[in-house]
Amino acid sequence: MRILVIIGGISKDSINKKLFELIKPLAPKDFEFDIYDISLLPFYSQDIESDFSESVLKFKEKIVACEGVLFITPEYNRSIPGVLKNAIDWCSRPYGAGLWNKKPSAVLGASMSTIGTFSAQADLRKILSSLGSLVMYQPEVYMNFSAYVDAKGEFFESTKKLYENFLRSFEEHILKSKSIYC
C-alpha cells in the first residue's frame, strides 16, 4: 500500500521530519512510504497552472500513484505553513481536475507547544475535506514532541502504541475508502 508522506515543515531540523522517522517502523507491514519535498514546488499562480514545471508534474504523479496521503504538519501562527498550502493548491487545480477528490488522507503533526498542532490539524482537515479528500477524523493525535520522547529522542512505549493505533486506523480507512469508491 503506497502512502505518500507530505511534511509541511521544510526546515532541515524539522521535528515533523523526526516524527515521521519515528513512526515509520510502527507502520503496518504493507505500507510503503514515499515522501515528497514540497520545498521544490514553485509558488502557485493561475498564470502558470497550465504550464506545469517538472517538480509539479512529479508531485502530481506521486499523488495519483499513491493509495493514501499522510500529512505531517507543524503549526505556524495557529494554522498550516504557507508552503503546505501551496502544495495543496497545486494539486487542486486546474478547477475540475483536482487530485484530492476521493483520495484518502490522514493528518498528524508535532510541535513544542502544549496543545501540539491542534489548530493546524483542524485547518488542514477542513481544507482537505473541501477538496473532496476522504479525511480520517479519528483517532486524532496532538503531540508536544518533547513530552512524548525520551532523552535519546525515542518514543516512550505508550507513544509507540498510540502511533501504531493511528497507522492501523489509517490502513483501515484506506481499505474502507477503496471498497466504497472503487
Uncertain regions: pLDDT < 50 for 5+ in a row? none
**Roughly how many Å is the radius of gyration?**
16 Å
The named CATH superfamily? Flavodoxin domain
Summed up, the domain count is 1
What sequence of helices (H) and strands (E) makes up the elements?
EHEHEHEEHEEHH
Structural class: alpha/beta
Q: What kind of sheet is the major sheet? A: 5 strands, parallel
User: What's the mean pLDDT score?
Assistant: 93
Morphology: globular
CATH architecture: 3-Layer(aba) Sandwich
DSSP strand content: 5-15%
Question: What is the CATH class?
Answer: Alpha Beta
Give a written overview of the molecule.
With 182 residues, the chain is of the alpha/beta class. It has one domain (2-181): Flavodoxin domain (Rossmann fold), CATH 3.40.50. It has helices at residues 15-23, 54-65, 82-90, 118-130, 145-148, 157-181, and strands at 2-7, 32-36, 68-72, 104-108, 110-111, 134-135, 143-144. The strands form two sheets. It has a five-stranded parallel beta sheet, sandwiched between helices. The mean pLDDT is 93.
Summarize the structure.
The protein is of the alpha/beta class. The chain contains 6 helices and 7 strands, in the order βαβαβαββαββαα. The model has no long low-confidence stretch (mean pLDDT about 95).
Core attributes:
182 residues, Rossmann fold, alpha/beta, 7 strands, 6 helices, two-stranded parallel sheet, five-stranded parallel sheet
